[in-house]
Amino acid sequence: MSKRPGGMKKRLKRGLWSPEEDEKLMNHIAKYGNGCWSSVPKIAGLERCGKSCRLRWINYLRPDLKRGAFSQEEEDLIIHLHSILGNKWSQIAAQLPGRTDNEVKNFWNSFIKKKLRCSDDGSLSSLSGYNNNQTADFAGYLDADALHGGVIPSVSSSSTLNSMAGVSPGGAANTNATTDELCCNNNPSNSGSGFESSTTQSSSNHHLPWLELGSISSCAEDGNAAGAGADHYGAALDELKWSDYVFDGGYPQYHQQGQCIYGDSKAAADAAAGQFDAHGLGINWCLN
DNA sequence: AACTATTCCAACCGCAACAAA
DNA sequence: ATTTGTTGCGGTTGGAATAGT
């Protein structure tokens, strides 16, 4: 496909990006936008393929990226969306402002590993609520949503952004059981093996109905929890109405929590913001 | 302190879909 | 209609960081 003019094979650099390369790419996008990636390396003076440049921008340099650990709300939403969408990381990430598909995917993979460690025999059985029969689950959950008159999440719709953002800490804080309580984390110090909720916000009490999912419960020290959890899952979904989270005023919270890798470097943010609308996110999470 | 194992994340790869020629 | 080039996505890997012994 990608033949080089003149047949000259230019050795492209691979591996981690240096700060200088990042700067070149940032400068290029600030100047020209992120239109044609194949031409970016040449114009920007980078010895990378366009694909690599694009990935670097999307996964790391975008000014709207929210760095750091996933919040409890994000974690919960990923779990829920994955139960609906399966491994559609880009679609899941689209519901998480400031997060990339790669980030979500990595989170999920480590999450799965934790689940496996939690299960006694290391089998996948405890994951049945998520990975098995996804097609059937998908249809079933959509139907459930429809029956409840809820808003079926559409990946591209702006309302889903709002709905996601509407999962506000305040709105969800009333759920009694926390992930930690459900998941082998009865010891506050979390010194035991097994599931840890997100590494940095374990003290959060912000939880949602779908937390009481089977596989999560399977981590509980109580051996009966796994079986009960499967039932919980369906029940929790019955409780869920997307419309409950739409236009809930949750957006500002995410806005405030948003972090920018460039910190207060408004110049960098200004330079790139407004030139892209990656993943349908027209919001610059950095500018604040 | 040194070594080993594990975890996490950034980046790469291959493929499919789409657009332009 | 076909070919060629580009973009986007999901799976996988490599290696740095961290934890454990």
From TrEMBL:
GO MF terms, alphabetically ordered: DNA binding
Domain (HTH myb-type): residue spans on this chain: 9-61, 62-116
CDD domains in the cross-refs: SANT (cd00167)
Subcellular location: Nucleus
Main location: nucleus
Top-level taxonomy: Eukaryota, Viridiplantae, Streptophyta, Embryophyta, Tracheophyta
Domain Myb-like residues, every copy: 9-61, 62-112
Keywords linked to the UniProt accession: DNA-binding, Nucleus, Repeat, Transcription, Transcription regulation
Gene Ontology, cellular component aspect: nucleus
The organism's place on the tree of life at top rank: Eukaryota
Pfam families linked to this entry: Myb_DNA-binding
Protein's recorded name: R2R3-MYB protein
InterPro entries: Homeodomain-like_sf, Myb_dom, Plant_SW-associated_TFs, SANT/Myb
